[in-house]
Amino acid sequence: MDLDQYKSLYNSLLLLLKECRPEIVGVLDKILANQDQLDFNLLPVKLLEADQKYFSELSARIDVPTELLIFTFDHSLRPFLRLWAEPYYSEIAEDEFRSWSFASICPFCGSKSHISRLRATDGRRFMFCDHCFTEWETRNLYCVHCGNNTPDTIQYLTVEEDPAYQVYTCEECKGYLKTFDERHKGDKTDLFIANIETVYLDMLAKEKGYTSHDND
Ligand SMILES: [Zn+2]
Ligand SMILES: [Zn+2]
Question: Which of 50, 67, 85 is the last residue before a domain boundary?
Fold first, then answer.
């Protein structure tokens, strides 16, 4: 990894945040002033390992909220993850369950996925990673959290205005997964944008007592 590039991207992100989020300028300045405390070599590894202890110690040392610190490292790493993952996109998408059985976890970067699509051409279902943009196939009537595939216990919710957006729910583990059915529109959708635009579906699912199992 080109550390200078990562550092410079990280700086640009902080400057952009300062511009767009004036209410947290003080905190952002604190991070900028303490950059010598940040080990850019180690940060990507700690992020991918989700090492909470490391980040809470680091944030205590420079006195900024852990969540914000992780947010900044995470978002500046994502473009690199996409570049690294891209050569493997088609190989992973066409793997057909041969080498990966953790349906909700990205086989490339280990991040948790929250959305899938049913492919326009054949209805096959692909999970999407919003960190590195990798897609991997998973079965249709199947809970990506617990592996349950008993037909009656997997349901889906839709909202009337847009039947292409569905929320699959599992009665076994109370998990849910957002899904975009491309067959309604006939072509591929941008799942990165779709995931953000459908926060209302997350709220709907949570309101009905389902969880995305983020903290398991
Ligand atoms: Zn990923
Ligand atoms: Zn389940």
Answer: 85
Q: Do residues 81 and 144 make contact, with C-beta atoms less than 8 angstroms apart? A: no
What is the longest distance spanned by two Cα atoms in the chain?
Answer: 56
Taking a 5 Å cut-off on Cβ, the residues next to ion ligand 2 are 143, 145-146, 148, 170, 172-173, 175
Nearest to 93 by CA among 139, 48, 127: 127
Is the domain of 29 the same as that of 56? Answer: yes
C-alpha of residue 107 to centroid of ligand 1, in Å = 7
With a threshold of 0.85, does the pTM exceed it? yes
Ligand showing the shortest atom-to-Cα distance for residue 155 = 2
For residue 96, report the distance from its CA to the centre of ligand 2, in Å: 21
In a domain, 213, yes or no: no
Are the CB atoms for 167 and 205 separated by under 8 Å?
yes
Q: Looking at residue 98, what DSSP letter applies? A: S
Tell me which ligand sits closest to the C-alpha of residue 149: 2
54-100 tens-digit pLDDT: 999 999 999 999 999 999 999 999 999 999 999 999 999 999 888 88
Under DSSP, is residue 127 helix (H, G, I), strand (E, B) or coil?
strand
Task: With a cut of 70, list the residues of the chain below it in pLDDT.
Answer: none
Task: Pick the ligand that lies closest to the CA of residue 192.
Answer: 1
